């Protein structure tokens, strides 16, 4: 039986807990212990009937406990996964039973694939990638570390999405496009040509409306 906790008690953290419960119902040998959260005011309370055990420091000396990453924001996710790794713990890779993932898909540590997602073939998801409900990812696509794909987004084949990029709800990326690292793509946007790093883009077709300095995500 594998002990597991979820970091984060917000909406996505509770969704990750639901994934764990659905995996348990399928027969996966997971023992859910409770939640972790950086907000000390939540410690020793309960969420979904389970305790909020503490912050990330609770993992100190508990390297056998897996962590479900319940943080969707790429910037915060990067920070928390770094702290978890420094404590010697590992993030769980979780795939909902109602997701469809092809045989030739590489899933990095800490990746989360939600119900209704479809990920076809010859695809790589690096560390901490989130594929939310009812998303599709086409052939020969690479999503780098900490990418978050919001519900209903569609990624065509031969796409590359850079580290830390946040794809909005119902957004779409056309085949063969490269999206740079630490991009924020608005809900419903359609990317028909390459986007540079560190920008916000919205609309159909997606247009850059904001540029950020290199390293903004480390602030």
UniProtKB/TrEMBL annotation:
UniProt key word Repeat: yes
Pfam families: PglD_N (PF17836)
GO molecular function, one term: transferase activity
Sequence positions that bind substrate: 72
Keyword vocabulary terms for this entry: Repeat, Transferase
Residues forming the catalytic site: 139 (proton acceptor)
CDD domains assigned: LbH_AT_putative
Taxonomy, superkingdom: Bacteria
Domain PglD N-terminal per the UniProt entry, residue ranges: 3-82
Residues at the site labelled Increases basicity of active site His: 140
Record has Repeat as a keyword: yes
PANTHER family: ACETYLTRANSFERASE (PTHR43300), UDP-N-ACETYLBACILLOSAMINE N-ACETYLTRANSFERASE (PTHR43300:SF7)
Protein's name in the database: Acetyltransferase (Isoleucine patch superfamily)
